[in-house]
Amino acid sequence: MKLTTLLFLTSALIATAQEAADPNSFFKAGVQAFFDAKPKESVAAFDQVVKLAPESKPQLWQRGLALYYTGQYKEGREQFETHQNVNSADVENAAWHFICVARAENVEAARKSLIPIEGDTRVPMKEVHELFSGKGSVEAVLKAAETGEGDDLKNHRCYAHLYLGLYFEALGDEAKAMEHMLKAAKDYQMDHYMGKCAQVHVKVRGW
After folding, report:
1. What digits encode the pLDDT tens for the residues 3-29?
2. Distances (CA, A) of 95 to 78, 135, 184, 188
3. Residues 6+ apart with CB under 8 A from 171
4. CATH number of 1-113: 1.25.40.10, 3.40.30.10, 3.40.50.300, 2.30.30.40?
5. What is the mean pLDDT of residues 163-188?
């Protein structure tokens, strides 16, 4: 799809949402803007969801992702802390919280405030959490991802490289961040939200 088409689609969705003053319409516009690698527009749409339906804010982890890519790390941290109240067993929430704190403050502060998670059985989330805590390793994440076959194996690899990319970005190692994120976005490309997030990441960073 051409960029001009994407811009038109995003603008049309936001205009429709504004006309309807409907939180669901703004949510759809926020998602589409994010997938179009337009995080500022995505945040604006999600903020309208919160304005129209304040009770929905804890559920809006998607808003947290968009906030990260606009550099609003303190706001992103707060969004993921709020989301933890309704989704307490998700390593991904802890990981995004970590990278927001790391960018707003430093890695030491991020490790000290890492959200403890139990019960996330998805591959390779346990190893990802251990890595972010400072107790695990990159090798353990990659090894854990080498399970299953077909699309399951591809998906595990996508998640592994996505979170390794984010981890190295938090550490300030752009070369390794780019190496892993490109693998998640291209070599192990997936069409679900987090797979598309990897693709958005490389577009926003100009990789």
Report:
1. 344 444 566 555 555 656 899 999 999
2. 13, 14, 16, 20
3. 102, 107
4. 1.25.40.10
5. 98
